[in-house]
Amino acid sequence: MHVMSSRDEPGLFSKSPRQRQAALDTLNGALDAGQAAGARYYVVHGQAFPKGLPASSPDYDLLCECVAPLLRSARERNMWIAWENVWWSSFRTPDFAGEMAKRMPEIRFTLDIKQAAKTKYGWRMFLEAMGGRLVNVHVCDERDGGKLCLPGKGNFDFGELAGALRQIGYEGAVILEPYPELFDTPSQLVQAVSYLKMKFE
Predict the structure, then answer these.
(1) Which pTM value belongs to this model?
(2) Spatial CB neighbours of 105, under 8 Å, sequence gap ≥ 6
(3) Distance between CA atoms of 66 and 61, rounded to whole angstroms?
(4) Secondary structure of 81-116 in HEC code, one letter for each residue
(5) Which of 11, 19, 95, 200 has the most crowded Cβ, counting Cβ within 10 A?
(6) How many Cβ atoms from other residues are within 10 Å of residue 37's Cβ?
(7) Which pairs count as long-range contacts for 31-37, CB under 8 Å and 24+ apart, including other chains?
């Protein structure tokens, strides 16, 4: 499951204990809904930097301190936290995965290929860093110039991605993120899903 993280998660990283608790209370409600729906993973974006990325490395100990209550809440509901790579957040470089895994062995990861493309690293380096802790893959396609489109309408090599996932033994979900501006009719979504199934079967 994946709520509107830009609205609900920033409070987890506040300096104010009251704001942290208020954010956790909201997210616990989301986790309750996820548990009722049978969700296994809650996808986290983490600390956001809307005013510009800091030059310094993340404070991993502080991030763990802020996220630990959410991780405990998730595990109490038999769910996992799956931290997603997002170029404007704390998880903007591949080495984040290893550093967080050292400190929080229960953490899991979500690979977003379009977010990886917005960095200098690319999806392969993020995938290698996530390794066996990868539990979700978010996909979209991209045309020349970086314009997003539905899978099959752009240049991304989904066959290469499928091969790389098989190589690490990944058997989890590959999730299409169909932004509203990328399609006009439901049939276009059906075609995109069929294209992905062909590439990943």
Answers:
(1) 0.93
(2) none
(3) 9
(4) EEEECCCCECCCCCHHHHHHHHHCCCCEEEEEHHHH
(5) 11
(6) 8
(7) 31/73, 31/74, 31/77, 31/79, 32/77, 33/1, 34/1, 34/77, 34/79, 35/77, 35/78, 35/79, 37/1
Q: What was the pLDDT predicted at 160?
A: 97
What does the alpha-carbon distance between residue 169 and residue 156 come to, in Å, rounded to a whole number? 21
pLDDT at residue 158 in the model: 97
**Cα Rg, the chain, nearest whole Å:** 17
For 142-199, the pLDDT digits (tens) are 998 889 999 999 999 999 999 999 999 999 999 999 999 999 999 999 999 999 999 9
Encoded tokens for 182: 């990328």
- For residue 12, how many other CB atoms are within 10 A of its CB? 23
Position of tokens 């509107």? 4
Report CA 27 to chain centroid distance, whole Å. Answer: 16
Calculate the CA 178 to chain-centre distance.
15
Tokens of 67: 């996220």
CB-CB contact of 119 with 92 (8 Å): yes
- Write the pLDDT tens digit of every residue in 92-109: 999 999 999 999 999 999
Residue 161, beta-bridge partner list: none
